[in-house]
Amino acid sequence: MSPRRLSGHAQERALDWASTSTATSEEAPVSRILLVDDEDSLCDLVSSALRFAGYEVSTEAGGLGALAAIRAAGPDLVVLDVNLPDLDGFEVCRRMRADGIVTPVIFLTARREPGDLRTGFSHGGDDYLTKPFSLEELVLRIEAVLRRAQGGGNGPHRLQCGELVLDEDAHQVFVADTEVELSPTEFRLLHYLLLNGGRVLSRMQILDYVWDYDFEGDAAITERYISYLRRKLGPHGSLIRTVRGVGYVLRASGP
User: What is the mean pLDDT of the chain?
Assistant: First the structure.
């Protein structure tokens, strides 16, 4: 297993990078990040770097404290360690999603096994970064996930397929006039399918677009999120069709 802390050399490089980062302008809204890790030195280093990058950062050392902070303060994003002393990060994320909390989650952990990656995403995580890591990469991933959550991008502001409607400006999804709550990743997945309505998309095309980063995952993550999305859309989930051996297509009618 990889060490839980950054090496001394890595810490020096991380601090050098953080000190040269450009902070967010005063006029721009500041995103609030909750960092959850029980290792004080790593938590101090990462939180300092994120503040240099222009974020407002609060910290928690345990899973139960993290859940309380998320429910009370409503951060814009959670950077969540998996190996916590009381409640592991996977369970924290699972409880968030069960409570209807769609705040984006980036797992930060020493676990590298493919099974851990799948567990993280199956519990509702939006990204997964393994230790040791580059702080610059963490910030890039935070920016990408926040961009997805905030509905960044150009194009039509209202997309529709039958009774399924996605409103980009309001960041809402409706099925037969009933609102459906989606996580940021599920929202972006549905957005991509609607933008390409009637066009068959490969699993890797979906993976590249939805994760908005050079994400080194596997196509099984795409299948898992398609399953989540179908379930949340209820009977209208059948609009998302599997094209065997190729990928998926969103189509209102026809073969």
Answer: 81
